[in-house]
């Protein structure tokens, strides 16, 4: 079936999530939607699936305009969706999950499970899935659960399948198997929309590529384009963000990380034997496409990851195994990746958030009692110093704009005596002015002799801030290169190529 | 430097992407659960919602009074010939009931002198005393994002412990009362602390643990009340304790003609302490941070698990104070296993109605005390079943738990900006 989206626009308040997006998927084609997190891919697909109503634009199937008021309509029209987070009921069997939502019943309201089993077997056989219809979903590996999702969609005769970041939860082997399945589906005439931000997968299976950035289609690409072309389309920024930055004056080695590995809550090795060091007065940028272990690496340094091996030492003192409190007391400042979840308490005021990590002892607390006068003076001063735009220090942080929220986080972290600053995605979602402000502050911290780690998925930010750049790919560090390394080389390294060969290729 | 793209990015497109990033569930501190979110929404409602909920509940109660009144039913039989009779009967029934409620709870203007006239108010405050302290306890847990449904158990063990000191351990006047109160609160604190410890160590949900500990406490106290070596009154075969020694009883504070006792002053003190603790102390600051956003609290170095334990300890101590109040103030002639009088559950309503703010809880406690005190006189004077009061109480909870319902009835604006409401609906639909 031919799927066409025409001028889809979706707004949330003043935020335009999708801005006149056009997309055509031909029958039997794998069409990749490439874009960073927050680019608007998922919103677009939710519009297609009837979960959101578009403010403007229309959806066409085989040149007929469709009106979906819910996923049911979309399914009936032949659109199937394989969600990133599976929509399966763990305690049901495969067959029960597949029939869920369109149960066939026999006489007396009994479920016709035999039909469902037969259907699962038939689809399994057709694509070589090897799925037992009577297995409980919770007992199946993640990769097989995903196949159940695919079977579920196919059992409703879906001729357009949407895969929303399907490889985020898969191991490399499972990913390869999924690629094979997608090719098979394509050969049987199914149209596939494949949402991802991983370049390797795109190049492997896509027939055509549409790149989305900030809610707009920024270009079409073909899988024969180089990684670097794709990467620059995806992460490139129209605005030049260079700030005035003097040369670094690196001092002693302050932070030394050796052989660090992290195992996450799903028992996946997400950071694999990583070693690097950071000197005083230098910015080490950790570049890489989202989801290659950067988040977990920073969390391991701050003490938020429970399963860490290897060594982390700051000024000769080991940080591994310390609690978050002890790590912060050792002089580590941390700007978390998601300020709304990890950085701020939205219901608390600016003043309260500014003392969030200093609630145990002077100067904010004396004899177990908050020093409100001191806190107010401190907050007033920081609001001025960091140019936090708000009605006053008693404004709830949740009411501030993203830029001002981030300034609150920065003000809090930079007003302690720091021996290390770790900033993860410090400018994600910020406007240009705020980005410049944040960058200036980070460079100031560097010039004051603080070792700085900046994690960013945006090449422009990396290039603007870094004195040295470590590129992460699949949990490991591909290489550590000087800050003036050409972007093309960085782009290739982000796709997993070693710096030497990447340099030659570029 | 304003940031139009992000100011309202709450349901941003990226939210589906970032919701379950690996980092979010990085360790055992659970992300804020659905129940915590609901709790936060309820507590975040405006004071106006609480007031309107009470008004609505009283209106609905009025309808029930009218429907069940015999005169109204009789007049309705000939409604179409003389409709005015029906309306008069309705007015008489409802107004009579609520006037009786007022007279029974605030001021009886038919009384001969002021002392008798004001007596209902002191009764109201007496009934309010344990509701306030238990309500504060539940509210404290709410502020940390915990549902303490274990009020009954915490009250019972506190009552048992304080009662034992009260009748079996003679001590000098003054000291005896203080020791009995402190021991009772300690027992409640331990009973609550067990819950916090289980939650922090094993991740057990506090709702289940507190409910189960209610049964444990009930049967434990019931058993001890049948044992001569324990709580049973000497020489008695009833499952009831001996009467409190006079030195352990809360003294009456307004003279002998009023039942109001020192426990009420303690409740006021507890309210003030609660205000200081939650708003001014560093520990209370951490409590609030964990209650609002455990993730950010953890990243800021706050030991979330330890906060859960201490929150339940303090919560249990405050609820325990209500149990102490029951044995040393309300029923001093010896207690049974029903001494809690289901105050532990009413306290949840009180905390919700008071939105877990100290003054709010105090006012809500007094309101519920008034309903208790006035309910009896309503029944006596107008023959309105006391169950109506329970229905009104329950409706208050119902309305508070459904702020959108109250807003819809009174056409109040939805908090937050107007354009957001649309997307929020969609989020729900999703």
TrEMBL record, chain A:
Keywords, ordered alphabetically: ATP-binding, Nucleotide-binding
Domain of life: Bacteria
Keyword hit for ATP-binding: yes
Gene3D superfamilies assigned to the protein according to its UniProt record, in alphabetical order: P-loop containing nucleotide triphosphate hydrolases
GO MF: ATP binding
Pfam family, one: ABC_tran
Protein name: ABC transporter ATP-binding protein
InterPro entries assigned: AAA+_ATPase (IPR003593), ABC_carbohydrate_import_ATPase (IPR050107), ABC_transporter-like_ATP-bd (IPR003439), ABC_transporter-like_CS (IPR017871), P-loop_NTPase (IPR027417)
Domain ABC transporter per the UniProt entry, residue ranges: 3-239, 255-499
From TrEMBL, chain B:
Cell compartment(s), UniProt: Cell membrane
Domain of life of the organism encoding this protein: Bacteria
Signal peptide: none
Predominant subcellular localization, coarse grouping: membrane
Keyword NADP among UniProt keywords: no
Classification via Pfam families: BPD_transp_2
Membrane topology category: Multi-pass membrane protein
Regions of compositional bias (Polar residues) in chain numbering: 1-21
Transmembrane segments: 42-68, 89-107, 127-146, 177-198, 207-225, 258-278, 307-328, 334-353, 360-378, 384-402
Keywords of the record: Cell membrane, Membrane, Transmembrane, Transmembrane helix
PANTHER family from the UniProt entry: ABC TRANSPORTER, PERMEASE PROTEIN, GUANOSINE ABC TRANSPORTER PERMEASE PROTEIN NUPP
UniProt name for this protein: ABC transporter permease
UniProt organism field: Antiquaquibacter soli
């Amino acid at each position: 079936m031919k799927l066409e989206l025409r001028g889809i626009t979706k707004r949330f308040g003043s935020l335009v999530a999708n801005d006149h997006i056009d997309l055509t998927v031909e029958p039997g084609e794998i069409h990749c939607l490439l874009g960073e997190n927050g680019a608007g891919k998922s919103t677009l697909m939710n519009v297609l699936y009837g979960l959101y109503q578009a403010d403007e634009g229309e959806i066409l199937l085989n040149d007929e305009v469709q009106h979906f008021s819910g996923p049911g309509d979309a399914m009936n029209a032949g659109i199937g969706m394989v969600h990133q987070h599976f929509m399966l009921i763990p305690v049901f069997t495969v067959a029960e999950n597949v029939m869920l939502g369109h149960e066939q019943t026999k006489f007396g309201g009994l479920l016709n499970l035999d039909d469902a089993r037969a259907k699962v077997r038939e689809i399994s056989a057709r694509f070589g899935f090897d799925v037992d219809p009577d297995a409980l979903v919770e007992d199946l590996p993640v990769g097989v659960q995903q196949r159940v999702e695919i079977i579920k969609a196919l059992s409703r005769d879906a001729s357009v399948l949407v895969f929303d970041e399907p490889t985020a939860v898969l191991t490399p082997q499972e990913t390869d198997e999924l690629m094979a399945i997608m090719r098979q589906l394509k050969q049987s005439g199914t149209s596939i929309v494949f949402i991802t931000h991983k370049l390797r997968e795109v190049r492997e299976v896509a027939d055509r590529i549409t790149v989305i950035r900030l809610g707009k289609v920024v270009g079409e690409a073909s899988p024969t384009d180089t990684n670097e072309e794709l990467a620059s389309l995806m992460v490139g920024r129209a605005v030049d963000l260079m700030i005035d930055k003097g040369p670094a004056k690196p001092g002693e080695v302050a932070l030394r990380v050796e052989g660090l590995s992290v195992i996450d809550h799903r028992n996946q090795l997400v950071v694999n034997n990583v070693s690097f060091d950071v000197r005083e007065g230098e910015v080490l940028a950790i570049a890489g496409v989202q989801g290659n272990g950067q988040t977990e690496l920073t969390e391991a340094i701050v003490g938020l990851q429970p399963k860490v091996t290897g060594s982390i030492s700051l000024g000769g003192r080991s940080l591994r195994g310390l609690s978050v409190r002890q790590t912060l007391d050792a002089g580590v400042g941390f700007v978390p990746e998601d300020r709304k979840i990890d950085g701020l308490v939205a219901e608390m005021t600016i003043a309260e958030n500014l003392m969030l990590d200093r609630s145990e002892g002077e100067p904010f607390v004396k004899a177990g009692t908050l020093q409100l006068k001191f806190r107010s003076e401190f907050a007033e001063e920081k609001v001025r110093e960091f140019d936090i735009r708000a009605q006053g220090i008693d404004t709830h942080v949740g009411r501030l704009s993203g830029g001002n929220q981030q300034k609150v986080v920065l003000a809090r972290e930079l007003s302690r005596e720091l021996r290390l600053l770790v900033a993860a995605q410090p400018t994600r979602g910020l406007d240009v002015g705020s980005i410049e402000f944040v960058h200036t502050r980070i460079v100031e911290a560097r010039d004051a002799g603080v070792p700085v780690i900046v994690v960013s998925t945006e090449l422009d930010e990396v290039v603007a801030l870094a004195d040295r750049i470590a590129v992460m790919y699949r949990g490991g560090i591909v290489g550590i290169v000087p800050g003036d390394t050409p972007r093309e080389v960085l782009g290739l390294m982000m796709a997993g190529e070693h710096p030497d060969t990447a340099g030659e290729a570029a | 430097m304003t940031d139009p793209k992000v100011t309202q990015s709450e349901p941003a497109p990226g939210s589906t992407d970032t919701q379950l990033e690996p980092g979010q569930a990085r360790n055992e501190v659970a992300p804020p659960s659905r129940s915590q979110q609901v709790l936060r929404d309820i507590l975040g409602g405006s004071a106006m919602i609480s007031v309107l909920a009470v008004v609505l509940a009283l209106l609905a109660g009025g309808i029930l009074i009218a429907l069940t009144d015999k005169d109204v039913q009789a007049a309705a039989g000939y409604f179409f010939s003389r409709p005015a009779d029906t309306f008069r009967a309705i007015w008489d029934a409802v107004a009579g009931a609520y006037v009786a409620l007022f007279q029974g709870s605030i001021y009886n203007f038919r009384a001969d002198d002021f002392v008798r006239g004001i007596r209902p108010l002191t009764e109201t405050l007496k009934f309010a005393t344990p509701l306030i302290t238990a309500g504060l306890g539940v509210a404290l847990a709410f502020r940390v994002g915990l549902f303490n449904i274990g009020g009954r158990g915490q009250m019972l063990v506190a009552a048992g412990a304080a009662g034992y000191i009260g009748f079996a351990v003679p001590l000098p006047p003054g000291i005896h009362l203080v020791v009995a109160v402190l021991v009772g609160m300690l027992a409640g604190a331990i009973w609550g602390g067990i819950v916090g410890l289980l939650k922090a160590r094993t991740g057990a949900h506090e709702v289940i643990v507190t409910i189960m500990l209610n049964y444990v406490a009930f049967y434990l106290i019931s058993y001890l009340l049948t044992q001569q070596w324990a709580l049973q009154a000497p020489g008695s075969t009833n499952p009831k304790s001996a009467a409190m020694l006079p030195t352990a009883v809360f003294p009456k504070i307004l003279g002998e003609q009023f039942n109001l006792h020192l426990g009420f002053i303690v409740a006021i003190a507890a309210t003030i302490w609660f205000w200081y603790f939650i708003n001014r102390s560093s520990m209370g600051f951490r409590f609030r941070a964990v209650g609002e956003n455990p993730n950010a609290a953890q990243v800021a170095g706050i030991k979330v698990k330890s906060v859960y334990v201490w929150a339940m300890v303090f919560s249990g101590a405050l609820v325990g104070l209500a149990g102490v109040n029951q044995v040393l103030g309300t029923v001093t002639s010896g207690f049974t296993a029903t001494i809690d009088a289901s105050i532990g559950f009413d306290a949840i309503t009180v905390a919700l109605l008071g939105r877990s703010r100290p003054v709010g809880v105090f006012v809500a406690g007094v309101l519920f005390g008034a309903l208790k005190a006035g309910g009896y006189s309503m029944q006596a004077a107008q023959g309105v079943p006391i169950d109506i009061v329970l229905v009104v109480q329950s409706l208050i909870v119902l309305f508070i738990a459904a702020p959108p319902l109250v807003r819809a009835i009174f056409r109040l604006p939805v908090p937050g900006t107007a354009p957001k409401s649309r997307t929020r609906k969609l989020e729900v639909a999703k």
